[in-house]
Amino acid sequence: MHSLALLKPIQSILWSVALLLLGNGLISTLLTLRGTTEGFSSAIMGIIMSSYFIGFICGTWVSGRLIRRMGHIRTFAFCASICASAALLHIIFIDAWVWIVLRFFYGLAYITLMTVIESWLNSQAASHERGRIFAFYMVVNLGALTLAQQLLHIASPDKFLLFAIVSILISWAILPLTLTRRNQPVINSARPKSSLKNLLKIAPLSVAGSTLSGLAMGAFWAMTPIYATELGYDISGIALIMSLTILGGAALQIPIGRYSDKHDRPKVITWVVTLAGIIALSIAVIPSQTALLAIFFIWGGLSFSIYPLSVAQLIDQLHPDEIVSGSSDMLVLHGLGCAFAPVISGSLMTFIGAQGLPLYIGAVLLILAAYTVYRRRRVVDLVSGNNAHFEPMVQTSSQVLSMMFDQPQRDLFDDPSFYGEEERERIINALRQSGS
């Protein structure tokens, strides 16, 4: 009953999230399959899918300004309309260059939608409830992404229907948010200041983990449907591979993360990355399709854990004041890795065939594994205190980071955007008069 009471203030937000991610999870796989049937090479599809991640990164810099100018609900409706129309324009204009442009603007609009949702969700969460609300939010994320792959059963990617379904789902995502009677939140007036230069000195392992995990996961999201198609899987098989990998990520992230909370986290990262790299290489030589499905499930659990483990390792080494800005930089680095991954892996698949994908992913992860071994043997990383609490994560906006990592109260008090200057002075005077 308490959980239901906790969800009541945010149920409209969660419904919007679910519908939005159903549409977004479907369009990503759908475009890869349709592009393949239209004769686009793996290299061209890699460029198309990279364009989405480039738009995603650019959107992290403009989303806050757009929300402050238009408000949360109007911005959400505006960007959802862009995404819904872009889904239909892909099927109307089947041209690689048009798709590249559409994917860029779709990515830019999509990250703005996520910023709206996550800033609103953050504003509705009391400090003592944020952990549980974040957990519910991650369940909705991973559940919707898993279910989205099964929507491929409805119709062939060669038809118009699936593109129309994507457009409908994204359009429906507007409804719960616009029907809410709750007040819109006020987004922070400034993006957290970048601390990347300091992070390279303080936590290079986290920087490497975030970037290289993006290079691996971006290739998975963009190119796995092409890989499965070239291996002879039908639509049902492709949907099953994608769903099982995501389910693996959902099932194994938390036990791996909780284990890392109680043990040497760099050592845990080393083992997780090494196993994920070896398993990725083994995918290239496994002949059995049944065994391949089990392998993708295990690989998903390991590989989906690398980015949140890197963020947790970063938090272990930062002062509380630096956590949100540092985690925001990790998000950008992960996105940059995702942006380059489809181009590199797609080009490799064009030259050596479908097995170029698992070979590429395995090589990236083993390079990261080698670096983690070097760091553990040659360098002692300074840790700020006790291990941070691991939180499962998917690619998201910087707004949700405030929900995961509460800022010290003094930061909020010293921030003029939190209290007006007159209110702040009044509180100071009252504290002085009370003898505090």
From TrEMBL:
Report the transmembrane regions from the record.
12-33, 39-63, 75-94, 100-121, 133-154, 160-179, 199-223, 235-256, 268-286, 292-310, 331-351, 357-374
InterPro entries, alphabetically?
A: MFS, MFS_dom, MFS_trans_sf, MFS_YcaD-like
- UniProt cross-references to Pfam families, sorted A to Z: MFS_1 (PF07690)
**Is rRNA-binding set as a keyword in this record?**
no
From the Swiss-Prot or TrEMBL record, what is one GO molecular function term? transmembrane transporter activity
Cellular component GO terms held in the UniProt record: plasma membrane
Instruction: Alphabetically list the UniProt keywords.
Output: Membrane, Transmembrane, Transmembrane helix
Q: Which residues form the Major facilitator superfamily (MFS) profile domain?
A: 202-436
Does the record's keyword annotation contain Protein biosynthesis? no
Q: Domain of life, per the record?
A: Bacteria
Query: SUPFAM superfamilies in the record, alphabetically?
Result: MFS general substrate transporter
UniProt xrefs under PANTHER family: MFS TRANSPORTER (PTHR23521:SF3), TRANSPORTER MFS SUPERFAMILY (PTHR23521)
Protein name (database record): Predicted arabinose efflux permease, MFS family
Q: What is the scientific name of the source organism?
A: Methylophaga sulfidovorans
